[in-house]
C-alpha cells in the first residue's frame, strides 16, 4: 500500500493535509468537518494502546464517527476513568464504524514493537466497512494506508475521531488483560495490564514469563535467561 497517494475526488495530498489542519485547536470534530466540507469522506481516526507493556498484545483501532452522533466527552483514553471509557466505548460502537486489530506478543517478538504496531494500525484501517479517504492518526509515525494519512502528535487529545479510536483500543485491551488475569492469576494482569510494575516484576521473578509475555523485552528476556540460560 502506498502511503498517502490515493485521494478523494480531485484533491491532492497537499490539499487533504491543508484541509485536515483547518479548525486545529481543542478536541472537537472540526478537522473531520473541514475535510468533509471539501468532499473528502469518510474520514477515519486511528490509535493504538499497549506499546510499553511487558505482556499482552498491542491493540489498534480505527473509527469513522457519524457526524450526526459524535459522542460528548471524547478525550484521550488515558485522561478518562475506566467507567467513562466503558460508557463512551458503548456509544462509539453503537453509532460509528469501528475496526480493531491485535498484534500478539509473538508478532512483536518477531518484527519488533514498532513494526508490529504499524501493522496493527494498518490492519485496523483496512478492516473498516468503508475505505477511508483520509486517515488521521495519533503520533508522528503513521502506518501505510491506501489513502492520504495525516499524523498528529497528541492527536488523541485534539481530534475526535482519534480520541474515539484511543478509547476503543484501550477498552478492548483492558478487557483482554482482565481475561488473561483470570487465566494466569499468578501474574496479576488484571491489576497492571501487563505494564512493568513492581507487582509484575515480582511475579516474573517468582514464576518466570508465560506465553503472553513479550520475550524480546529486556525485563522478560532477563528472567527467561535466569530460568533457562543464554541461548547464544
Automatic annotation (TrEMBL):
It comes from the Bacteria. It catalyses: Endonucleolytic cleavage to 5'-phosphomonoester. It is an enzyme of class 3 (hydrolase). InterPro entries: RNase_HII, RNase_HII/HIII, RNase_HII/HIII_dom, RNaseH-like_sf, RNaseH_sf. Its EC number is 3.1.26.4. A divalent metal cation binds at residues 47-48, 138. Manganese or magnesium. Binds 1 divalent metal ion per monomer in the absence of substrate. May bind a second metal ion after substrate binding. It is found in: Cytoplasm. PANTHER family: RIBONUCLEASE H2 SUBUNIT A, RIBONUCLEASE HII. Belongs to the RNase HII family. HAMAP family: RNase_HII_B. Endonuclease that specifically degrades the RNA of RNA-DNA hybrids. NCBIfam families: PRK00015.1-3 (NF000595). This is Ribonuclease HII. The gene is rnhB.
Amino acid at each position: 500500500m502506498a502511503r498517502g497517494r490515493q485521494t478523494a475526488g480531485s484533491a491532492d495530498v497537499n490539499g487533504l493535509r491543508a484541509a485536515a489542519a483547518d479548525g486545529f485547536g481543542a478536541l472537537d470534530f472540526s478537522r473531520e468537518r473541514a475535510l468533509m466540507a471539501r468532499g473528502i469522506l469518510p474520514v477515519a481516526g486511528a490509535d493504538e494502546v499497549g506499546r510499553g507493556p511487558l505482556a499482552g498484545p498491542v491493540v489498534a483501532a480505527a473509527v469513522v464517527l457519524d457526524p450526526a452522533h459524535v459522542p460528548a466527552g471524547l478525550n484521550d483514553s488515558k485522561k478518562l476513568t475506566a467507567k467513562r471509557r466503558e460508557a463512551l466505548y458503548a456509544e462509539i460502537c453503537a453509532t460509528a464504524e469501528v475496526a480493531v486489530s491485535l498484534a500478539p506478543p509473538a508478532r512483536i517478538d518477531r518484527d519488533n514493537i514498532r513494526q508490529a504496531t504499524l501493522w496493527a494500525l494498518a490492519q485496523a484501517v483496512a478492516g473498516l466497512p468503508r475505505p477511508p479517504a483520509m486517515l488521521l492518526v495519533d503520533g508522528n509515525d503513521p502506518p501505510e494506508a491506501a489513502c492520504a494519512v495525516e499524523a498528529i502528535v497528541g492527536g488523541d487529545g485534539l481530534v475526535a475521531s482519534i480520541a474515539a479510536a484511543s478509547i476503543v483500543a484501550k477498552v478492548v485491551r483492558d478487557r483482554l488483560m482482565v481475561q488473561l488475569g483470570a487465566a494466569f492469576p499468578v501474574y496479576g494482569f488484571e491489576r497492571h495490564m501487563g505494564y512493568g510494575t513492581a507487582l509484575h516484576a515480582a511475579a516474573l521473578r517468582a514464576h518466570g514469563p508465560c506465553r503472553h509475555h513479550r520475550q524480546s523485552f529486556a525485563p522478560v528476556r532477563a528472567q527467561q535467561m535466569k530460568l533457562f540460560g543464554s541461548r547464544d
